[in-house]
Amino acid sequence: MKINIILSVLISALLFSCNSQPKEAFDLLIIHANVVDVANGEVYADQFIGISQDTIRIVSTNAALSEYKAADTLDAAGAYLMPGLWDNHVHFRGGDSLIAENKTLLPLFLANGITTVREAGGDITPTVLDWKAQIRKGELSGPDIFTSGPKLDGDGWSWEGSIPVTNKEEVSKALDSLQKLKVDFVKIYDGSITPEMYYEIISQASKRGFKVTGHMPMDADLNKAVALGLDGIEHLYYLMPQGSAVADSIRDLKIGFQGLPLLTETYDNDLAEKNFRSLAEKNIYVTATLYISNVLFNIPTMDLDSKTYLKYMGPGIQKTYERRIKTAMNMSEKSKAYNRKRIEKFNEMIPPIYDSGIHILAGSDCGAFNSFVYPGVSLIEELRELVKQGLTPQQALSASMINGPGFFDLSEYYGDIAPGKVGNLIVLEKNPLEDIEAIKTLEAVIKNGKTFSKDMLEKMLSEVVYD
Ligand SMILES: [Zn+2]
Fold first, then answer.
1. Which of 62, 118, 129, 349 is 20 to 30 A from 184, comparing alpha carbons?
2. What is the CA(94)–ligand 1 centre distance, in A?
3. DSSP class per residue in 211-262
4. Distance 117 CA to ligand 1 centre (A)
5. Is the pLDDT of residue 2 over 50?
6. Does one domain contain both 305 and 435?
7. Could you tell me the distance, in angstroms and rounded to a whole number, from the CA of residue 40 to the centre of ligand 1?
C-alpha cells in the first residue's frame, strides 16, 4: 500500500466541489485512517484527523470531512494510525569527540517509528539539550528528547560525566546544577553510590519535584527508596530481592551484586507477586530492558544478521563496543551458567510484574558502549521480547507510548489520538494490536506537523551509512 501526500490545491478542488464553506483550516489533514486506540484495544475505522503545528485539533469520521481544509493532506488509505513509539531508555554519550556520531543516531529512531526518547544519562548534556530544543522547533529531525543529563553516582563513579555525591550538601549542589540545566528527571547510578546517599538523592530530588529513577545499590532497600519518593527503577536486577525470603539477610552481608546468585536461588514467585502488588500501589515504573541482556550474553555466538545495522554506527561508537565484547568473550563457564539462569528469571518476571499493576516501561538501553543494541530497531526488539514473555501486543505497546508519558505525568498530552494531544503519529500498514510484527510495517511518521513518508525515512537512513 502506498500513501499519497496530496497538495492542498488538489484537495481543495476535491473537497469543496460541494457548496459548503470550510469551517476550519489545519496544517495537515490525515484522511481514511484506521485510528488505533491502544489503551482500549480498539480500532476506529475511516477517521480523519486535523493537525495544526504539533497538536491534534480534531478527530472525526470521514463523513464530516467536507467542512475542513488543510495545507497538506495525507490519505492513509485504510492504514493504521497510532501515537509514535517511545524508547524509554537510551543514551547519547562517548564524549565530545563522539557528538557528531551521536547526532547521526537521531534519524534511526524516527525511521523506526520512535518519536520520543527518554535519555537516561550521558556526558554530552549541553549538546543533547541543544538537540532537544532544535527538534522541538522543527529545525532538526529526530525524536523528542527527555533527558536526565549527568547521572548521580558516588566518588568512584562508573560513567564519564557523572556527578559524584558523598554528603547532603553535595547532593543539594548536584540537584541545583541539574535544575539549572533544566533536565527532565534525575538518574542515579550504582557505580559507588552508598545506600545513604541513594536515599538522600531520592528524598531531596522528590521534594524539588523531580521524577527520580535509576539503578540501586544492592545494599539498599527498594521499598524504603519507593517510600521516599523513587518513581522508577531501571533493569530487573533491583526487583530480585522482592522474591527472596532471605533478602534482608543477604542485604546485611553488604556484598552488593555478589548477592544476586543467592537471590536468584531463593526467588519465590508467590512472595514476589505479593511484594510487586505493594510496589504497584506506589505507582512505580520499571524499565525491563530484556533485549539488551540477550544481546550482550549472546555476543560470542552472534550471527551476521545482528550486525547488519553496524553500518549506521560511526567508527568511534563501534570502538566503544570493545569493552562489552571483551567481557562477553572472557566470561567463565560458571558465570555463563548463572547469567543464563538470570536471563530466564528476568523473562519469567514479566507477566507477574505486569499483573501486579507495576507500570512496565519499554526501553532499549541503546547507545554507545552498549554493543550491538542499535538505536531504533532495538526498541522494536524489546517490544517483541515483551510479547514473547507473555504480554499482548496492546500491553507491550502501552509500555512504550502510554507508560512513557505516564512516568512524566504527561498522559494529558500523549498516549492516544484525540484533540489536544501531541500529533506525533505513525502510520502502519497492518494492525499492531493483532500482531506486534505490524510495527515493522511503517509507512509514515508525522512529527511537528510534518509527514515523513517511507521514502523520506529510507533516504534519511541512507544518508547516515558509514563506510
Ligand atoms: Zn542505560
1. 349
2. 13
3. -EEE---TTS-HHHHHHHT--EEESGGGGGGGGBTTHHHHHHTT-GGGGHHH
4. 12
5. no
6. no
7. 31
Does 467 map to a domain?
A: no
Grid coordinates given for 65: 470531512
**Cα(87) to centroid(ligand 1), Å:** 12
How far, in Å, from the CA of 188 to the mean position of ligand 1?
11
Question: Nine-digit cell at 267?
Answer: 526467588
- Taking all residues of the chain, what is their mean pLDDT, rounded to a whole number? 93
341: domain CATH number is 3.20.20.140
Task: Give the predicted TM-score (pTM) of the model.
Answer: 0.94
Distance 416 CA to ligand 1 centre (A): 27
Residue 105: all three cell numbers together: 543516531
Q: Would you state the pLDDT for residue 22?
A: 60
241, 263 Cβ separation under 8 angstroms? yes
- Cβ count within 10 A of residue 459: 13
Range of the domain at 211: 85-407
**Sole residue written with cell 555466538:** 301
Q: Whose CA is closest to 28, among 71, 91, 60? A: 71
Q: Per the structure, how many domains does the chain have? A: 2
**What is the pLDDT at residue 20?**
53
